[in-house]
Design brief:
22 helices; 3-stranded antiparallel sheet; mainly alpha
């Protein structure tokens, strides 16, 4: 037992080293996602860290020669694993400007991620030999898991906000959100009485003698409560608690308590969730209201005469429109499909009718907001800003040579095309691999394994989670910008369904080794990413 514990600690050290090596290979330029010029990276340090990892694996093999070297779900075909492993490596590797070097970058990803999978698999086996595995199972079964996960994520978000972000905005969007929250907190929709353009900074506009931020009113109105209390930086951490608890309740309703607890654990230890919670961005609020909207749709699906959840879910979906309008449309499509699939009827009932009417009433407030600022209900401040700053129609959905040409350095190609949508997807997928769960072998590993395991066909509920992921990815493929600030933030609505799919896969296999491997990966990976 003592030897197993020593080998376990050595493997953990090796895994951390390999994870750090991965980050050392990434580009230091925040405008270039993915690996930098591999010839200019600190290869000596990278190879030394990987060497420690290899040494730990050798010690494990010598000390436990009878154990399997890595974890593989029983019955999973080797060819399927190899194919999905390659896809997993491609998703982890952002596209390069020079296509000729891209295969080399993919091979580097496969080597780094593969070694980490081996290390963590071996560490999980040593944990079992040290008789510590059952403690992980007991932890995940506790009724306190959702609260512990939620409060931990909120506390970590506060730490990030205060000691990493210094409690100040870090991207222009945050600056404008905070400015909007400040004038909304005193009852104003705009600022007047100043010289034209005196307050014009990025993402603000002067129109007919009034100055205002360009973003939808929903999130600044929520943030204004924090401004009024003198602590805007606490709003997102509190919303993080709500999002994790609501996610736990939704998963418990659709699946079971075990999957719900594991989902809460994955969300509470997610670096992506924590960093969004430590920011002044709108995504944590949008995730929370989207989850409430989905819960309302589920309850209406179970009972077509449901009234209470119809009001709550519809109001939440309308609020999502006020916070992030496009996501409101995308999530609304999923909610409608969910109700139709569960009721098996296209005929509106009391519950679905109330849900839709409430969503339209609340979301329709954005038309009044547009009219108050631009004079036209159909002209939102963002469109006014881009049309006046650049040219009419520059900031719209769809493809074309005249879409998105604003000169931003991280906009890969002129205009927008299916090719650029693939480039953006590559950038976002590589960020998801790093930041979703912080796993050293890539955060999409279990989703890939679930696909490779042919006997584990997804249930109807899991297909719903897959549909939400697909709708978000396909929807944002129509937008010209990747949104690669604070992670793949345009894809933030994927966080919960990806956590659910990973947790459901673990639960269906019912393999204690896989559970312990994942928990270990999160516990080691989260602090490394943070």
């Amino acid at each position: 037992m003592k030897g197993a514990l020593v080998r376990f600690l050595l493997l953990c050290l090796g895994t951390v080293g390999g994870h750090i090596a991965w980050f050392l290979l990434l580009s230091p330029d925040p405008w270039v996602v993915g690996f930098g010029d591999l010839g200019q990276r600190p290869l000596g340090a990278v190879l030394s860290l990987i060497g420690v990892q290899v040494l730990a694996l050798i010690v494990h093999r010598l000390g436990a020669p009878s154990t399997s070297f890595t974890y593989r779900p029983a019955g999973t075909p080797i060819p399927a694993l190899l194919a999905l492993g390659l896809i997993h490596g491609v998703l982890a590797t952002a596209v390069t400007r020079n296509p000729l070097v891209y295969p080399g970058h993919v091979l580097v990803s496969l080597a780094v991620l593969g070694l980490s999978w081996l290390s963590l698999s071996a560490a999980a086996r040593e944990l079992e030999m040290a008789a510590l595995g059952p403690r992980i199972d007991a932890m995940l079964a506790s009724e306190r898991v959702p609260w512990i996960a939620a409060l931990w994520a909120a506390a970590a978000a506060l730490v990030v906000n205060r000691w990493v972000f210094d409690a100040i905005p870090h991207v222009p969007d945050e600056v404008v959100y905070l400015l909007q929250a400040k004038y909304l907190s005193v009852g104003d929709l705009s600022v007047s009485g100043v010289p034209p353009a005196a307050l014009d900074v990025i993402s603000t506009v002067t129109h007919e003698g009034r100055w205002f931020g360009i973003f939808p009113v929903g999130w600044p109105a929520i943030l204004a409560v924090g401004v009024k209390l003198g602590a805007p930086w606490v709003v997102n951490p509190l919303l993080t608690v709500g999002a994790i608890l609501v996610a736990h309740g939704l998963v418990d309703r659709l699946w079971d308590r075990r999957i719900a607890n594991l989902t809460a654990f994955l969300l509470g230890t997610s670096p992506w969730v924590i960093f969004l919670g430590g920011s002044l961005m709108s995504h944590t609020a949008s995730i929370l209201v989207a989850l409430v909207a989905l819960r309302g749709a589920v309850e209406v699906g179970f009972d077509r005469r449901q009234v209470g959840w119809s009001w709550i879910g519809g109001a939440a979906l309308g609020s999502l429109v006020l916070i992030r309008p496009f996501e409101g449309v995308l999530v609304g499509v999923v909610c409608a499909a969910l109700v139709i699939a569960m009721t098996r009827s296209l005929v509106p009932a009391v519950g679905s009718s109330l849900y839709a009417a409430t969503a339209l009433a609340v979301g329709g407030l954005t038309l009044l907001y547009n009219r108050a600022l631009t004079g036209d209900p159909m002209l939102d401040p963002i469109t006014l800003f881009f049309d006046s700053r650049h040219y009419p129609g520059v900031n719209r959905l769809g493809f074309g040579a005249d879409v998105g040409n604003v000169g931003w350095g991280n906009d890969a190609l002129a205009g927008h095309s299916p090719l650029e949508s693939l480039v953006n997807a590559s950038l976002n997928a590589s960020l998801v691999q790093v930041e979703l769960f912080g796993w050293a072998f890539g955060s999409l590993a279990l989703v890939a394994l679930a696909i490779a395991s042919r006997k584990l066909a997804p249930s109807a509920r899991e297909k719903g989670a897959v549909a939400l992921v697909a709708v978000i990815a396909l929807g944002y493929s129509l937008y010209w910008y990747s949104g690669a600030d604070f992670g793949a933030r345009y894809w933030s609505q994927m966080i919960v369904p990806l956590a659910v799919l990973s947790a459901a896969f673990i639960s269906r296999l019912d393999d204690p080794m896989l559970r312990r491997l994942v928990v270990l990966a999160s516990i080691l990976g989260m602090p490394v990413v943070l």
